[in-house]
Amino acid sequence: MRPGQAVSLTVLAFPGRTYSARVARVYAAVDPATHRVAVRVEIADPHAELRAGMLAEFSIRVAPALQTVAIPVNGAVREADGTTSVWVTEDRRHFFQRTVTTGERDGQWVQILTGARPGELIVSDGAVFLSNQLAAPPSD
Description:
This protein is mainly beta. The protein is built from 1 helix and 10 strands, in the order ββββββββββα.
């Protein structure tokens, strides 16, 4: 966040109404108990409707929306050398290992920044098994 950034907010007392605002200041201190940073926002209130203590919900867009590929977290395999790979298939019988760059994780999903395209079939259940088979020594 930075000063000048656009903010939109809604107030419980006025459902359906959105107010425009701007970040005026981002404070330097982080609250050690909550791990939050205080932000001062200047709100455009031309009709003087807002009052101190009103419950509001703020939305601060910190970056433009980004559309990327996301896969189930168990489909991304962390390799011994520190890279992350996925297993891709076109016919569900032949599998190809591909190194990817990951981004955000959301408990069940991991963002793939590079290395996979939308619409590709990527193994999720069993990806670790395929990696282990590749690393295993040949059996007799």
